[in-house]
Specification:
With 152 residues, the protein is α/β, with parallel strands linked by helices. The protein starts with a helix and ends with a helix. β1 and β2 form a beta hairpin. The protein has one domain: 3-Layer(aba) Sandwich (Rossmann fold), CATH 3.40.50.2300. The chain has a 5-stranded parallel β-sheet, with helices on both faces. Strands 1-2 form a two-stranded antiparallel sheet.
């Protein structure tokens, strides 16, 4: 199928427009690692972010996340991490990330269950950039991710 130059320019313009955020053109996708043991949560976040200027990598466990972070050629701009996980909880993952000199500057956004304000406070004390209480909206997640990705 052959696209004329005018039609192709229109498509590129529409894609660039869809990647605008607060008056800024996103020239590079924001890479986010989503660490959560529940696959439906990882898929939900992926659907919230893909197509809105984000590239999402999921990890189902702390061990998998740390291996991906340490061996990745595509370092994420931001990490989201669930607190309640079976093999390593979110605090242990956060502690491992903050203790690694190659990873410690990556902002980590902790995901906490509603009513777990103590978890949010503890996460901030341990070096988490921020926290989000579940359930959360697409726009609140995107806003927080943009806030910390722009600091990178």
């Amino acid at each position: 199928m052959h696209l004329c130059r005018m039609h192709w320019t229109h498509i590129v313009s529409r894609v660039r427009t869809s990647l605008k955020w607060v008056g800024r053109i996103v020239d590079e996708l924001i890479r986010v690692m989503v660490i959560d043991d529940e696959i439906h949560i990882r898929r939900l976040i992926d659907r919230m972010l893909v197509g809105r200027g984000f590239e999402v990598v999921g990890a189902g466990s702390g061990k998998q996340a740390l291996a991906l972070l340490r061996n990745s050629n595509h370092r994420p701009h931001v990490v989201t991490c669930d607190v309640a996980m079976p093999d390593m909880n979110g605090f242990e993952i956060l502690e491992a990330i903050k203790a690694d000199p190659d990873l410690c500057d990556i902002p980590v956004i902790m995901l906490t269950a509603m009513g777990q304000t103590g978890d949010a406070y503890r996460a901030k004390e341990m070096g988490a950039a921020d926290y989000i209480t579940k359930p959360f909206s697409t726009m609140s997640l995107i806003d927080i991710l943009h806030r910390y990705a722009e600091k990178q």
